[in-house]
Specification:
Blueprint lengths: L5 H11 L4 H13 L3 H14 L5 H12 L3 H17 L3 H15 L2
């Protein structure tokens, strides 16, 4: 039996569990891996609609908007993520988001 590509496997799993946060996020990562930034952005937004506190989405949305050329939107997501990371006491994410903000504001 031939193995399905990872993106197809995720699609199949999402048919059974469309509101699974991790599967939705995983599909967004697959879109990012193939530089499908518009699809990735939409999938990350869908993930946040399921779980507005899913912290990894904010960093990836910031990166996605950087790739799409909108630094204002990128900064907005980084800053929202930083506030969420602080509320979750997630120091690693705080550091990553702070650095992303610093890099954009320093340009």
């Amino acid at each position: 039996m031939e193995r399905l590509p990872r993106k197809d496997m995720i699609f199949d799993m999402l048919l059974k569990e469309p509101n699974d946060v991790f599967l939705n996020y995983a599909l967004a990562m697959e879109h990012l891996a193939t530089s499908d930034f518009e699809l990735a952005e939409a999938q990350l937004q869908k993930t946040l609609s399921i779980d507005p506190a899913y912290l990894p989405c904010f960093y990836k949305l910031g990166q996605t908007w950087e790739k799409l050329g909108d630094t204002a939107k990128a900064l907005g997501f980084y800053k929202q993520g930083l506030e969420l990371a602080r509320s979750q006491n997630n120091t690693k994410a705080q550091g990553e988001l702070s650095e992303a903000i610093w890099m954009l504001e320093d340009e």
